[in-house]
Model the fold of this input.
Amino acid sequence: MGKFLHTFFSPLDFLRAVPQVWNGFQYNIKLMLVAEALVLVLALLVAIVRGLPGRAAGPFGRLPSSTRTSFAARHSSSSSS
Done:
């Protein structure tokens, strides 16, 4: 039992790992913020395109639906294998 506790719950190893864990956490937060900003911009563009009036904007209005459908089809086929 002592070897198990020393291997998995060593206070010295825990203290050594804190800086690496903190750096990884900061990286994840930065990545999340960048991804969120990109998603917001893309969602705004999709909403604007969907709201465009007229027949000329028709293909652009259907574009978000077609990309969602193709993504769903790719995702379902890859998860079944």
User: Anything to note?
Assistant: The chain has a mean pLDDT of 81. Residues 11 and 17 are 10 Å apart (CA to CA). The radius of gyration is 24 Å.
